[in-house]
Design a protein that fits this description.
heterodimer; A: alpha/beta; six-stranded mixed β-sheet; 7 helices; 33% helix; B: alpha+beta; 4 domains; six-stranded mixed barrel
Chain lengths: 225, 831
């Protein structure tokens, strides 16, 4: 699945914010690209700027300078709606805190991205995605009725239900115990391999990072290796 | 996916999961209260109005100097509109009993007279009277007691009227349209229409007054009245309830204002509830919106579907609210059925549309701001939860909310003056409440170190959430103002209003008192242990010019104004401002010094004729021109039942004109026989028994007061529900902290005490502000709007502050108990 055309590229990416002590640089001149089908781990200690970098790469936040290209589109030239359109159906997310909508049950949470895209077979595809993560019996349960591991498996089903080309995962095991985390990661990598999705994974877990093809080590906002 | 479908799906899911519960409950409550108030108000207002129609014996009258035959086009038109009609003819004639003769007003009536009110008759002069459903039979007459006294006649005898000798079948005690205007000075003889021809009194060209009486539903009468006004000739006079009696008009006006106030207050409460729950709904949607943006949803799709979801919710909840409101008012009508003696008119559907429109306007006005802000949330919030949406500019939300509130209130109240006052009060009250709330919250912050742990924790919370606490104090304070205002209006203002017609209010007016009889008449009353009444001089005169401009060149366009300009008015003079009168513009003359010829006019007279202070008014008094300067304008309480005048002159101007005096006294039931004695002792004096009119106005006042109390009961329920809604809104903020505290080892009891401390502190602050606001608003309403005396009630403070603490504290603990009982982990996991 790997091609020479980068699916995602960051060029001299920086992010500064103002603070009471003056301007603070969170991400400093980051430059890399990711090819389609590749998996990349962004590692670093707390406060290294990993999540900020992820937000800019996904077009959720805008850089102070530099540019991000996703699927060949320069995100800096697009407004928020334009960036949303680029993400629509082609980008999936898995978050540390799961981000399931509390008013929707497991099945409806998985259906949400398909509903938003107007897919006619949303329910069928969501049922299938839930079964792939082994949660068919929990389909009608609400997030508050699910364990942390189950919530993250629903989030993985939701992330893959649109068969995205690019998946961003932000500390996906951060809120889980080691055993549950390991099972969730297996599931994530299996689904990734099955769908041939490009994976950008933010973690401070070296073992987890080691399962990716490449690792980008970040410290104080700069790429150190 | 279309935004409408997404909105509907979200609505179904959110309502199932309870996300929309608070908003739905607020809307259902608001609409239920509004429509119940609307239904009840419209039905009771119709009843009050038809009760007021009693003064005319109809809802609408047309009087003419020319015959109005039974097949007149007006009658055909009225019948085609489903209205009931009848006719009367009245003229003056000398009637005889034996050798005695008197000038009398012959009133010729036919079925179904009267269309409103009842005729009362008695078996003997000044005897016990009772209502009758019939009219004098052909060949019979009913005669007023004072006429019988002057003729020395009794029931059973014969009365010669024209060419006929008719049997006196009963004493005419009261007829609904005898009025209080003292224009029909001669006593009445009521004759059946079937006898008219045989009397041979009416020939072509006779001076008589033909009247057509109409009654029907409010809308039909309203449209027929407009039709009649457009088609009638200038010589014909159209009279409606509003023009019939100053006293009755005054009572109906006050009833309308009270009812409008009730509706206005309900809307205020509803606005608070909807605004609070809409903001909470938006707050709870923050994460979902950020997530949807992450998944590729666009801004306009999100905003549109959020607004549509709220509108969907609003529409369905509003329909449910209308159903609840309708059932509630049906319940009231059922309970009151026997009390009202007559069936209430059918409710109009107008309140449904008004409450639906009202609620949707309010919902969109109050919800659009948080929802638009919500649309602006950054998708990066999925990674950094502290990212809040950009708040819209300060003016936008308030202007939107104010616009929504203004349009809502206008639909309801349709009284620009009341609305302007209300808006000024709302804006000033909100600003003052917020400022005072912040100040009180800061002061509370200084006390945070004192007291037990629970108190320290509670007070620290109040201070830490400075802005939110102040907003809660404003919301609770506003609810308290409204609730306490209900107490004031219910206990004080309504009582004051009902007290405007005390049990010993004068029920007999004496007119045509010659100056030489004044002292003797005073002595007559003292002799019978009745307090000597004040005698007011009385002269008839017509306004002919204003500042040199003849009245025919400045004829007003309104019916009432034309009446003032064309007809002779009752003129009087006084050294001091009479009781029941208050100067609203200009100044009263100094009674101890000679003044230039001046006149003080009632505000109705000034308004209808467009007069200004300083104008020179020229009157024709007994053929002589009298010019006076307009120096003051008075507000007159007509329902005080004392002799009152539109026009009062300074002493000395009219004294030279030969006038008469008038006065009013209260005669108890057992003293009514005195009237006969008085008529014999002072044959020139004419006595009007206004007991019936007094009773009619008392009945309007009592029924309206009852209606208002009922409407207020709804408003009260709405207020309490709003209070609970506001507390529920704040529940989210506290549940996480409670869970955290319990995780750290605090007992449930300890957490509940902390919550209670916080809510009690907010309740006390809101109580202080609410009581101050309610006392001020009550004073303003009493003095400015209802023209009633007002005294500050110290109990209000106790009720407000202690009640505020107990109500908010209790409701807060009650609302938080489920949160505190739930395992902390479920709360923490849900964050």
């Amino acid at each position: 699945m790997k091609t020479d055309e980068p699916i995602l590229a960051a060029r001299h990416l920086s992010k500064q914010v103002s603070s009471p002590d003056g301007t603070l640089t969170i991400v400093d001149d980051v430059d890399f690209s990711v090819a389609s089908g590749e998996s990349l781990a962004i590692m670093g200690p707390s406060g290294a700027g990993k999540s900020t970098l992820l937000a800019m790469l996904a077009g959720l936040d805008i850089p102070s300078s530099g540019q991000v290209t996703m699927f060949g589109e320069n995100l800096g030239e697009l407004n928020e709606d334009g960036r949303a359109a680029v993400r629509s159906q082609r980008v999936g997310f898995v978050f540390q805190s799961f981000h399931l909508i509390p008013s929707l049950n497991a099945l409806e949470n998985v259906m949400l991205p398909l509903d938003l895209a107007g897919a006619k077979d949303a329910r069928v595809r969501a049922v299938e995605a839930l079964s792939r993560v082994g949660l068919t019996p929990r389909a009608t349960h609400y997030p508050r009725q699910l364990s942390g591991g189950e919530q993250q498996r629903v989030a993985i089903a939701r992330a893959f239900v649109t068969r995205p080309r690019l998946l961003f995962a932000d500390e996906p095991t951060g809120n889980l115990d080691r055993a549950t985390g390991a099972r969730v990661i297996d599931l994530l990598f299996d689904a990734n391999a099955a769908a041939g999705t490009t994976l950008i994974l933010v973690t401070h877990d070296a073992a987890l990072a080691g399962r990716c093809q490449r690792v980008l080590l970040l410290d104080a906002g700069r790429v150190v290796s | 996916m279309s935004s409408l479908r997404h909105a509907w799906v979200s609505f179904v899911r959110d309502s199932r999961s309870g996300e929309l519960t608070v908003l739905l409950a607020a809307v259902v409550t608001a609409v239920a209260a509004l429509s119940a108030v609307g239904f009840a108000t419209s039905r009771m207002a119709q009843l009050v109005r038809s009760q007021a129609g009693v003064v005319l014996a109809a809802d609408l009258r047309l009087e003419s100097g020319r015959p109005l035959p039974a097949d007149h086009p007006y009658i055909r038109e009225a019948r085609s509109r489903g209205l009931l009609s009848t006719g009367t003819i009245s003229f003056s004639s000398v009637v005889f009993s034996g050798d005695a003769s008197q000038l009398a007003t012959v009133l010729v009536v036919e079925e179904p007279y009267p269309l409103r009110g009842k005729v009362r008759i008695a078996d003997s002069p000044y005897g016990e009277a009772h209502d009758v459903e019939r009219l004098p039979a052909p060949g019979e007459v009913w005669v007023e007691a004072r006429l019988l006294t002057r003729l020395n006649a009794l029931p059973g005898g014969l009365l010669s009227v024209g060419d006929r000798a008719l049997r006196i079948a009963a004493v005419l005690d009261h007829r609904p349209d005898q009025g209080a205007g003292f224009t029909d000075l001669a006593p009445t003889v009521m004759v059946n229409r079937a006898d008219l021809e045989s009397l041979h009194l009416l020939v072509p060209g006779s001076r008589a007054s033909w009247a057509l009486l109409f009654s029907g539903g409010v809308d039909s009468i309203g449209s027929f009245s407009r039709w009649l006004r457009a088609h009638k000739s200038d010589a014909e006079r159209q009279i409606e309830v509003a023009e019939s009696s100053e006293q009755m008009q005054s009572a109906v006006d006050r009833a309308d204002r009270f009812l409008n106030l009730a509706a206005l207050v309900t809307v205020l409460l509803a606005a608070v509830a909807i605004a609070m729950s809409a903001r909470q709904f938006a707050e709870r949607k923050l994460d979902a919106v950020a997530l949807m943006k992450c998944m590729g949803a666009r801004h306009h799709f999100i905003v549109r579907s959020l607004l549509l979801e709220v509108v969907c919710a609003g529409c369905l909840a509003a329909l449910a609210g209308v159903a609840v409101g309708f059932m509630a008012q049906a319940g009231i009508v059922f309970v009151l059925g026997s009390l009202f003696h007559q069936s209430l008119p059918q409710p109009s559907w107008m309140p449904v549309w008004v409450s639906l429109a009202t609620t949707l306007i309010m919902l969109i006005g109050c919800a659009s701001v948080p929802l638009l802000e919500l649309g602006g949330v950054s998708p990066a919030r999925v990674l950094r939860r502290q990212l809040a949406p950009v708040r819209l500019s300060f003016y936008v939300p308030y202007l939107l909310a104010l616009l929504a509130l203004t349009s809502t209130l206008y639909v309801l109240v349709r009284d620009a003056r009341l609305l302007t006052y209300a808006l000024v009060v709302i804006v000033v009250a909100a600003a003052v409440l917020y400022g005072a709330g912040r100040l009180l919250v800061s002061i509370t912050g200084m006390l945070r170190g004192a007291g037990a742990t629970a108190w320290r924790y509670g007070l620290a919370n109040v201070a830490r959430r400075g802005h939110e606490s102040a907003l809660q104090v404003v919301a609770f304070g506003l609810a308290f103002i409204v609730l306490l205002l209900l107490v004031i209006v219910r206990h004080d203002l309504l009582k004051e209003w009902q007290a405007t017609i005390p049990v010993d209010a004068p029920n007999h007016f004496l007119v045509n008192i010659r100056p030489v009889d004044v002292d003797a008449l005073g002595a007559f009353f003292e002799q019978h242990h009745i307090a000597r009444p004040d005698f007011a001089p009385w002269v008839r005169g017509r306004l002919v010019a204003v500042s040199g401009q003849p009245m025919r060149d400045r004829m007003p366009t309104t019916v009432r104004g034309r009446g003032f300009a064309e007809r002779e008015q009752n003129l009087s003079w006084s050294g001091a401002v009479p009781i029941d009168n208050a100067i609203v513009a200009g100044s009263w003359w100094d009674p101890l010094r000679p003044v230039a010829p001046s006149v003080s006019v009632a505000e109705e007279f000034q308004r209808e004729l467009g007069l200004a202070l300083g104008d020179t008014l020229t009157f024709d008094v007994a053929g002589e021109p009298v010019a006076v300067t307009l120096t003051s304008i008075r507000h007159v309480r007509w329902d005080g039942f004392r002799p009152n005048f539109f026009l009062l002159f300074s002493p000395g101007v009219l004294s030279a004109v030969t006038g008469t005096y008038m006065t009013s006294v209260h005669l108890d039931h057992h003293e009514r026989a005195l009237v006969g004695e008085l008529v014999r002792a002072f044959p020139s004096v004419t006595i009007f028994d206004v007991e019936q009119l007094l009773e009619q106005i008392r009945e309007v006042t009592d029924r309206a007061a009852l209606a208002i109390e009922l409407v207020f009961a709804f408003t009260l329920v709405a207020g309490v529900l709003v209070l609970l809604a506001v507390i529920r809104v704040t529940r989210d903020e506290r549940s996480y902290e409670s869970a955290l505290l319990r995780t750290l080892g605090a007992s449930r009891w300890m957490v509940l005490k902390g919550v209670a401390a916080e809510f009690i502190a907010i309740g006390v602050l809101a109580g202080v502000l609410g009581t101050s606001g309610a006392a001020l608003a009550g004073w303003w309403l009493a003095t400015q709007l209802f023209h009633l005396p007002y005294s500050f009630n110290p109990w209000l403070w106790t009720v407000g502050i202690v009640g505020g603490a107990l109500l908010v504290g209790g409701a807060g603990v009650w609302s938080m108990r489920s949160v505190v009982n739930a395992p902390p982990i479920s709360v923490l996991r849900g964050v």
